[in-house]
Amino acid sequence: MYQGVSCAQDIEALTLSIMKESTKLPSARVLGGPFHPGVEMGYDRFLNGNTNHQFLLSIKLGYYLHENIHQGITIKPALSYYYATNSNIYIGSEINIGYLHAFMDKSLFNRNSDGEYEEIINFGKPKFMPSLAFSSGYQLYSQERNYLNF
Questions:
Q1: Collapsing DSSP states into helix, strand and coil, what is residue 105?
Q2: Which of 107, 99, 109, 39 is nearest to 74 (CA)?
Q3: pLDDT tens-place string over residues 23-72
Q4: How far apart are CA 56 and CA 64, in angstroms?
Q5: Which of 76, 63, 14 is nearest to 43 (CA)?
Q6: E-assigned strands of 8-139?
Q7: What is the CA 28 to chain-centroid distance, rounded?
Q8: Residue 27, Cβ neighbours under 10 Å: how many?
Q9: Global pTM?
Q10: Domain map of the chain by residue range?
Q11: What order do you get walking across the sheet with 12-20 strand by strand?
């Protein structure tokens, strides 16, 4: 997933991420395997920061399709902190409390008391998705903050 945010102090930003959903362990072959598309839109607000310290409050809404398995809708509020040195090197961290609601692509059936199978309503499965991330990088321009996360 690629996400780009370009903003200065006390700025709000809208983000758009295009992603590939995957169910395998991380490896060097990030682009390999079948393509399961997704999109995520976000709203970011930089809070009371200065040249070196910056807090970022964000919320992201997303959707992905894992073909023939399920579809997912996500909501992810997050709080991030970035520290930039005078030599344009920065480090950052983010805490995220996410929620995923996944819907199966196939019909679901339940066996009734007569031993026959009946189709049931697919209300989906709720999932809690917390995360903690760390990042570092180099600022290309010292006048504005360009935090790029991959």
A1: coil
A2: 99
A3: 666 665 656 667 789 999 999 998 876 778 888 899 999 999 988 888 99
A4: 25
A5: 14
A6: 12-20, 37-47, 53-66, 70-84, 89-104, 108-111, 117-120, 125-138
A7: 20
A8: 9
A9: 0.70
A10: 11-22+34-139
A11: 12-20, 37-47, 53-66, 70-84, 89-104, 125-138
**How many other C-beta atoms lie within 10 A of the C-beta of residue 57?**
14
Tokens representing 81 are 């902190």
Residue 92: predicted pLDDT: 93
Residue 68, phi-psi category: left (phi > 0), alpha (psi -120 to 50), beta (remainder): left
Distance CA 129, CA 114 (A): 39
Neighbouring CB atoms inside 10 A of 145's CB total 22
- Extract long-range pairs of 58-63: CB within 8 Å, 24+ residues apart: 58/15, 60/15, 60/17, 62/17, 62/19, 62/38, 63/38, 63/39
Average pLDDT over residues 96-101: 95
Characterize the bridge pairing of strands 117-120 and 70-84.
unpaired
For the purposes of burial, counting CB atoms within 10 Å of the CB of 46, is it exposed (0-12), middle (13-18) or buried (19 or more)?
Answer: buried
Per DSSP, the three-state class of 52 is coil
